[in-house]
Write the C-alpha cells for this entry.
Amino acid sequence: MDPKYSAPRGTADLTYPESEKTRQLLSYAREVFEQYGYQLISTPVLESTDLFVRSIGENTDIVNKEMYTFEDQGGQMLTLRPEGTAPVIRAYLERGLQSRGLPQKLYYYGPMFRRERPQAGRYRQFSQAGAELIGSMDPMADTEIISMSADLFRKLKLKNYVLRINSVGCRECRKEYIADLKAKLDGMVPDLCEQCRKRSSGNPMRVFDCKNENCVTVLEDAPVISAYLCEHCIEHYHTVLLGLEILGIDYFKDDRLVRGLDYYTRTAFEFQFEGLGAQNTVSAGGRYDHLVEELGGTPTGGVGFSLGVERVLLAVEAEEAEPFELRGVEVFVAGIDIPGVEILKALQVIRDAGISADTDLMDRSLKAQMKHANRVGARFVVIAGGEEHQRGEVTLRDLEESEQWTLEIKEALSLIKEKKERGL
Ligand code: ATP
Ligand code: MG
C-alpha cells in the first residue's frame, strides 16, 4: 500500500509495544514525583510567543530558529511550547500558586515542539516529563531535583550514565566572567565556527555548547565560570554536591557545562548515557533564580529538570534493561458453533471478575481462533461449544502449562484467579 499521507518530518506515531512502554515509563516517573511530594500540573500546548522569547532568551537556538510560531486568525502570535518550565512558571504566577504556600512542587509531562534536524533521539515533536520546585533557595532543593532522575533510572534498571554538574554562577559573579570571556573570544573569532562567532557577541557562554571539534579545541583556552564564582555561589554548589554524596549519587564536575536556555543560574546538570550517540543527554535541568521575576513575579528562586521520554526509552533499549511488562489479554474465549450472545455472556462474566478477556469477532475456525489467541498474548483459552456447552461446561486451556480442564465457567474463573494470584 502506498499511503496518501505521512506524519510530518520529525514526528512519530507511537504504536504497541512502544506506546505501552511509554505509558509504563510515565507511570514510573509519576511514582517518583509523587514520592517526593510533587503535584501534577497541566498547561496548554500553545502559549503566547513572548513568553518563550522572554524566558528562554533571544539569543538561543530555540528562540532563534526552532520555534513553531504562527499568527492565529485573531492576530495573536502563538508558539507550540518548546519546553515546559516557562509555561509552568506562567501558570504559577497567573493562578497565584504562591498563595498556597512555598515551595510549590509541580510536575508535568507532555509533547514539546522544536524545529530541529531530525535524527536518532532528536525529533520535532518529543515528550518530556519534568518537575519544578518553586520558591526555595536551599541547595537541598537542587539535590532533590537531581535525585529524582537518579531514582527513576534505578526503577528502570538503567546504570550506564554519568551525572555532569556545574555551577553557572549568579548575576553578580557572571558579570566579570562574561566580560573576560567576551574579551578572550574576540581574539578567537577567526578560529570559531559561524554559530560560535554569533554567540560570542550575543550570548558568549553558549559557545561551550558547540559540538564542532575545532571549536571545542580552541575553547580549551577560554576562561571557565568556576574561577569566577562568588562566595555564595561556591557555598551553594558545595552543599548541592555534599547532598549528592550523602545520597550516594556519583557526579562529574564539568566546568564547561552550560544549558541551552538563558534562565539558568548556579546549578546546571545533565545525565548523559552511553550508547546513545550524539543525543546522549537524557535528563537535564538546573536552578533559575530570576525566571519568576522575569515573568512578572516577585523575586523567587526555583530549580527544575526535564527528561526526554524517547531518549529514556532508547537508553532502556541500549542497556537491554527490560523494566517493562508487556502482557496481552489474560483470557481468550473461543467458540465452536455457538451463538455470539453466549460468547458475549461468558466474556462479561470473566471481565466482571476483573480478568481481561477477548474473543475472535471474525467468525473464524477454531484453529484460526487459537492462532489469534496467541497473537493477542492470551495465557488461557476458554472454549465454549459442543457437548460441553450442552452440559453447561467449557474447556479451559492453560497455554503456558499445556494443561486442559473441562469444567463450569465459574470453576474455570476460580482456577484462573488462583493461578494469577499465586503467580503460577
Ligand atoms: P540537546 O543538547 O540534546 O539538544 P537540550 O539541551 O536542548 O538537549 P533541554 O532543553 O534541556 O535539552 O531538554 C531536556 C531533555 O529533553 C533533553 O535532555 C532531551 O532528553 C530532551 N530533548 C530535547 N530536545 C529534544 C528533541 N529535539 N528530541 C528529543 N528529545 C529532546
Ligand atoms: Mg537542544
About this structure: The chain is about 40% helix and 20% strand. Residues 417 and 423 are 10 Å apart (CA to CA).
